[in-house]
Amino acid sequence: MISLCITGHSAPAITAAHAALVAAGMAPARPLARDAQINFATWHERVYQALLQSQAESGDEADGSDTTEADAAPATMGRLWEQLASDLFLANMDAKIWGWADANSLGLLDFWLDLDASTHFVLLATTPAQYLADQLAQLAHQAGASLQDLPVDSLMDQWQQSHQAMLRFALHHPKRCVLLLADHLPLQTDALVQAVKSTWSRKLKALRTEQPAESSPAAMADAGPGDALLRHFAQELCQAYPQALSLQHEIASVAMALPAPGVVPGVPHLLLDSVLNTVSLAHHVPALQHQMAEIAASQDVQAQSLAQATAQLDALAQEKNAFTAARDAETAAKAEAIKQRDALAREKNALTAARDAETAAKAEAIKQRDALAQEKNALTAARDAETAAKAEAIKQRDALAQEKTALSAARDAETAAK
Question: Is 8 helix (H, G, I), strand (E, B) or coil?
Fold first, then answer.
């Protein structure tokens, strides 16, 4: 028996990979026999809820920082959740090849690794540009949404955290893990199945590597010029995050790259086709306007069509200008933020230097005070010694005077006696 844990940071990629492996012969994970509501998805949700609640009660979130579900996963967990996880494995033990797909498994990779030795991991990595392009595509379907509604900084932080976790796990456990680049996964499902099967050929020899054309997700994918444009702008946004780009290159050096899909033109060609279509329409507008002006009296319908086309072109131009203005505004805002950050850093350094100088001055004053105190103590000791010496001299003088008086009295007595 072998079980596959399919996870990553891109939900569409995880879904496509799971569907491809199921179509190739992998059995989808079954829920508990005694309670069909307990499956891998609900198990992950309840575990994270319990962990977040436990951390909130113990004060782990007292600093106010945001905590994601992947961050909430500890090295160990309660016996109840471990037992439920073991029961889920027992519910699927009859299947030779089975697996589950869940983005939440990314935060529990070490737990699943230690739970059962038959578990192997399919980690799906995407480039930051593809991840942002997917987010831009979702934003484009929202009425009235703008680029300012997209939290780019937060999204890039999430991408870095999840992909660092995948890279770390892949490097530490190469025999039980395969890291795949899945930017165009809906078009590469056959290649994905072949890659997974070649990694564990003996254990996955029952998988089929050729899927029927009518059921292949590649046959239903449609990558148009709009997708290429979004990816182009996403790549421009990624240039402001050199750490993410560095991590992308590091992942590319470790991950297995799937062959580029042959059914869809490359992204540069799609982008160029989109630009060429727009330029061609712009060149045809004056001729169409002249032609419509000549026959406007007799062909009102064509004139209305031309006006509608012109309005659409104007709307597209305004939308492009708005997008450019938003991008320029964001660039200016980032530059201003960097400027303010640098000014604050210089001010902080100046304050730190002043504080250090004041601390040094205080230390010198304390040192001088201690030296004066020691000198004063030495003078006081000397004075006390001198006073004691004087007192001793006076005592000796008094003793000598008494002795002299006694001798004089004795001498006088002796003289009187004589």
Answer: strand
